[in-house]
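Q: Structure tokens for this one, please.
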Amino acid sequence: MESTFRIPKGWFVSGDAPDDYDIGVDPTLTYENHPCVIIKAKPNPGEFAALAQHVKADAYHGKRLRFSAALRSQDLKNRTALFMRISDAHGKNLAFDNMRNRFVTGTTDWAHYAIVLDVAEEAEDIVFGFLMSLDGQAWMADVQLEVVEKSVPTTDILEEIAAYYPTNLDFEE
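A: Here is the predicted structure, written as tokens:
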């Protein structure tokens, strides 16, 4: 069954079980008089769903990039979070953060969160957005994607999570 919400232009739905969630612009809520988007679980949802955007990395090569937004949650049994992934032309992740150790859960009011990653010269793609897992609902608003000074610390967790994923399955390295 399709979502009852409109997917905003330039964004796409993804995740392990996007059909188990209503996703899009929430016509009943705004943030500082601006539209916001929602991910709302249907009964017995699968693992997670996300609303994301994809941009080419060319304009950001060699720069530090911050993706920030305000999040709000209601009755989250698991979590909601921002995420950003930077990959090369072969799909190899070069930088990644999904707020793994600082996600939002339960019921919360609007609060701002940020992800900061370095964009390598060989970067091809940047995907960023927000996700929600299992029961509840979450909103995102006030989205910013901006270059920041190198003095702003990164939040990259790629090395930290590397042990959880198989590597070099094609024996190329």
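A few notes: The mean pLDDT is 92. The chain has one domain: 12-164.
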